[in-house]
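Progress note, project year one: complex with adenosine-5'-triphosphate.
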Amino acid sequence: MSTDVMIEARDLSKVYGSYRAIDRLNFKIKKGEVVGFLGPNGAGKSTTMRILTCFIGPSSGTAIVGGNDVFANPLGARSIVGYLPQRAPLYPEMGVIEYLQFAANIRAIPQLERKMSIRKVIDICGLADALEKDIGELSHGYRQRVGLAQALLHNPPILILDEPTSDLDPNEKAEFIEYLKAIGKDRTVMLSTHNLAEVEASCPRVIIVSRGKIVADGGPTDLAARSGKARYVMILDEQSRTSPSGSAHRSSGGLPLGEVLEGIRQTIPSAETKELPSDEREHVIQILAPSTKDFRRELFSLAVDKGWVLLELRREVIQLEEVFRDLTVGAEAGSRLDKAGIRRAAEEDDEDEDDDEDEDDQDEDGEDEDDDDDKEEDDKSRSKS
Ligand SMILES: Nc1ncnc2c1ncn2[C@@H]1O[C@H](COP(=O)(O)OP(=O)(O)OP(=O)(O)O)[C@@H](O)[C@H]1O
Ligand SMILES: [Mg+2]
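Model obtained:
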């Protein structure tokens, strides 16, 4: 292994019964890289991170963290990693300082450096306002800051952060992203998140997992370009049409959505269409089409031919979010939708105006299934230390 590789997964697998939570993952993360680890709920992100931080062992394969094999030298691996579990297990009856002193003790930070280390993480994590309170009295966001503070306490060269910003407010998120960029310069950071804007802002590299397998690995912009799709947004007046002379007039029956979607499909057979939220005076249509051609002229001509009043037509660079959905929706959300009998946008009938845009919100929920595990693992680690 070259010396600047800080984290390496080699055919890493974890099997629960007959279920493969992660399936032969291979990746290398070098010194100074900040890598976003993405995937839908249940994709295997936390499982991978727990293996890398030696909280659980792999079923097969191995991982090497800072030159330490997680089987052969788990203590060595742990000593150079700062880990923020998805739900940081904290002791509610402890005060913030008391907890950080406890964590410093576990990390065996020398007495002389302890005060300074604690002061530093209090500053970094914005904990000054919370010092008088017991952890049990803190809001979710502040508890997350305490969890993050303990991960940073020993100034580790490798940080593994499992959804570090999920409970932070927007101001804190933005500050945390800035902080990540700063510390990422001389550290290795792997963070999981469901916030794709955050990844685009802070991670030069993204690894996307789905059903325990890596489905993409690269820069967010490269991944977006590789998707091969472009997005168009077309806004039409729902209440008027143009006459052959070109003047707009109020149309009695309005402009049916079905007619619009059918027209678009006939013009671009491979298009995926979906109506975006709007007021009742407009149809706002999102169209995903191959990026090999610019379809704006065709869409404009379609509107003219049909007498639709075109209020806006724009072509946008496809975002990481679309790539993510493209690579993972079939695996997770898609199967849920199928089970519930709901068709995806690409499969919608003309009259089916429902959309699935809030799946990601749904994904944010229901992620606390492993809380107990985290607590248990952390307790185990403390008793080992
Ligand atoms: N202790 C366990 N026993 C059985 N199955 C488990 C256990 N821990 C995790 N799994 C399963 O492994 C899969 C991957 O879980 P993991 O927590 O790694 O997902 P994740 O990508 O972190 O998801 P999320 O975004 O919801 O945090 C899930 O299907 C989960 O139910
Ligand atoms: Mg997780």
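The longest strand covers residues 229-242.
The first helix runs from residue 45 to 52.
No further modelling is planned for this target in the current period.
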